[in-house]
Amino acid sequence: APSQDEQSKIISRFQEYLQINTAQPSPDYQKSTHFILSQANSLSLESQVVEFVKGKPVVLLKWPGSDPSLPSILLNSHTDVVPSEYSKWVHPPLGAHIDEQGNIFARGSQDMKCVGMQYLEAIRRLKSSGFQPKRSLYLSFVPDEEIGGHDGAEKLAYSDVLKNMNVDIVLDEGLPSPNENYRLFYAERTPWWLVIKATGAPGHGAKLYDNSAMENLFKSIESIRRFRASQFDLVKAGLKAEGEVISVNVAFLKAGTPSPTGFVMNLQPSEAEAGFDIRIPPTANTESLEKRIAEEWAPASRNMTFEFKQKVTTHDDLGRPLLTASDNSNPWWTLLEEAIKKANGKIGKPEIFPASTDARYFRQLGLPAIGFSPMVNTPILLHDHNEFLNQAEYLRGINVYESIIKAYTSFIPPGRDGVSRDEL
Ligand SMILES: CSCC[C@H](NC=O)C(=O)O
Ligand SMILES: [Zn+2]
Ligand SMILES: [Zn+2]
C-alpha cells in the first residue's frame, strides 16, 4: 500500500483534475489538456494532441510495449462533465471538498474524471515497481462525450490515428455499484431522441370538439405512456434489467399561446409538440418500434408528424448488434474478471449500460469494448447533485486498474507464445 504521503499526493492530483471546469456547454479543454500532458510528462509517457475539430482536443498517451508486433490496449475516458446547479450542492461542484468520511464532492468524481486519473495513477505505480508491458498501452482523453461524442470519440474511432494504434480491446466507463459487486457492461442502449408534433383546429376554450392539436398530442402521449408502463413493469417484476427494456421519458412539452401573464386560457392552440428520450437495447426489434411510432405515436391520420433529433444505430458497420462477448469466447472478458478478482474484487452479472457512452463508437468498428468504472458500495450519482466518490474507494480502484493493466498488456493469444506465425 502507498505511504500516507503518497496517498495524499494521489488524492491532490485527483482534486486538481476535478477543479478544472470542463462542464458543458463551455468546457475548459485548454486547462484539462495542459493538466493531462503534465501528468504524462511526469510519467514519461509519449503524448499527442489531435484536434479532429478545432478546440476539441483528443489527448493520446502511450506507454510503449516491449513487443510492437502485438496489438495494443486502449483505456478511454472523457474529459467533459455535465453542468451543475451550484445552489443545490452541499459542497461546490468544482471544489473537490473532502468531508469527514473521506467523500470527495465534485462534478466528475464518478463520471468520469475518477477513471481517467486512476488509469494514470495505476501506470505511475506499475512504472515505479519496474513493470514492463509487452503490449502498448494507450490512454485517450476525449472531449464532448456528454453531448454525443461526435467531435471526440466518434472522430477518433473513424480516424487513421486509431487504425495505426492497432487496438485489440477498449475499456470505457461503467457505473458505480450500490453493493459490493463491481459492474461490467458488454453493451449499451442507443438513444433515439424523438419529437412529435400535432396540429389541429384552433377554437374556443369552452368548446368540446375532436381533432384539436392538444387532443391529438395527448392520444399519443397516452399510448406512449402505456408502452412505457409495459416496459417498466418488466423491470419492476424483476424479469428484466434496466438496460434490457426500451425506456421512454418525456423530455419536454411545448404548446399554448403565450400572453404577458402566462398563457391564454380560453384558446385551444393549433399546434402542440412533445419530445422523448428513448433508449433501445441492442437486441430490440427496432422495426416494430419504428412502426409503432409511425402508426400509434405520430400517425399522419391524426395530423401528426415526427422527427428524430438523434437516432443512433443498434448495429455495427457489418450489421451485427453492438455487443461485446461477455463469456470465455472473449479472452478480454475473462482476463478482466480474473484481474478484478485478483485485486480482491467481486463481480456482478454482465449488464447492458442503460444510457450511452463513447464505447459505442469502438463497438461500431467491431472492436470489443467493455464498460467499467471501479466503484463499489457507492450511490449512483452521475448527473445528480452532490456527486461524490469516497477517497478509499478511489484508491482501491487504482489497485484494480493496476491488476487489469498487468493482465491486459501481458496477454499473448494462444498460439503466439512469443513466436509469430510467420516464424513457425
Ligand atoms: C446522444 S449521446 C448522449 C450521451 C449521454 N451520455 C452520458 O450520459 C447520454 O445521454 O447517455
Ligand atoms: Zn460519462
Ligand atoms: Zn455522463
TrEMBL record:
<feature type="binding site">
    <location>
        <position position="383"/>
    </location>
    <ligand>
        <name>Zn(2+) 2</name>
    </ligand>
</feature>
<dbReference type="InterPro" id="IPR011650">
    <property type="entry name" value="Peptidase_M20_dimer"/>
</dbReference>
<feature type="binding site">
    <location>
        <position position="111"/>
    </location>
    <ligand>
        <name>Zn(2+) 2</name>
    </ligand>
</feature>
<dbReference type="Pfam" id="PF01546">
    <property type="entry name" value="Peptidase_M20"/>
</dbReference>
<dbReference type="InterPro" id="IPR052083">
    <property type="entry name" value="Aminoacylase-1_M20A"/>
</dbReference>
<comment type="similarity">
    <text>Belongs to the peptidase M20A family.</text>
</comment>
<keyword id="KW-0732">Signal</keyword>
<dbReference type="InterPro" id="IPR001261">
    <property type="entry name" value="ArgE/DapE_CS"/>
</dbReference>
<dbReference type="Pfam" id="PF07687">
    <property type="entry name" value="M20_dimer"/>
</dbReference>
<dbReference type="InterPro" id="IPR036264">
    <property type="entry name" value="Bact_exopeptidase_dim_dom"/>
</dbReference>
<dbReference type="GO" id="GO:0046872">
    <property type="term" value="F:metal ion binding"/>
</dbReference>
<dbReference type="GO" id="GO:0005737">
    <property type="term" value="C:cytoplasm"/>
</dbReference>
<feature type="active site" description="Proton acceptor">
    <location>
        <position position="145"/>
    </location>
</feature>
<dbReference type="GO" id="GO:0006520">
    <property type="term" value="P:amino acid metabolic process"/>
</dbReference>
<keyword id="KW-0479">Metal-binding</keyword>
<feature type="active site">
    <location>
        <position position="80"/>
    </location>
</feature>
<dbReference type="InterPro" id="IPR002933">
    <property type="entry name" value="Peptidase_M20"/>
</dbReference>
<feature type="binding site">
    <location>
        <position position="111"/>
    </location>
    <ligand>
        <name>Zn(2+) 1</name>
    </ligand>
</feature>
<feature type="binding site">
    <location>
        <position position="78"/>
    </location>
    <ligand>
        <name>Zn(2+) 1</name>
    </ligand>
</feature>
<protein>
    <recommendedName>
        <fullName>N-acyl-aliphatic-L-amino acid amidohydrolase</fullName>
        <ecNumber>3.5.1.14</ecNumber>
    </recommendedName>
</protein>
<dbReference type="InterPro" id="IPR010159">
    <property type="entry name" value="N-acyl_aa_amidohydrolase"/>
</dbReference>
<keyword id="KW-0378">Hydrolase</keyword>
<feature type="binding site">
    <location>
        <position position="146"/>
    </location>
    <ligand>
        <name>Zn(2+) 2</name>
    </ligand>
</feature>
<dbReference type="GO" id="GO:0004046">
    <property type="term" value="F:aminoacylase activity"/>
</dbReference>
<feature type="domain" description="Peptidase M20 dimerisation">
    <location>
        <begin position="187"/>
        <end position="297"/>
    </location>
</feature>
<keyword id="KW-0862">Zinc</keyword>
<keyword id="KW-0963">Cytoplasm</keyword>
<feature type="binding site">
    <location>
        <position position="173"/>
    </location>
    <ligand>
        <name>Zn(2+) 1</name>
    </ligand>
</feature>
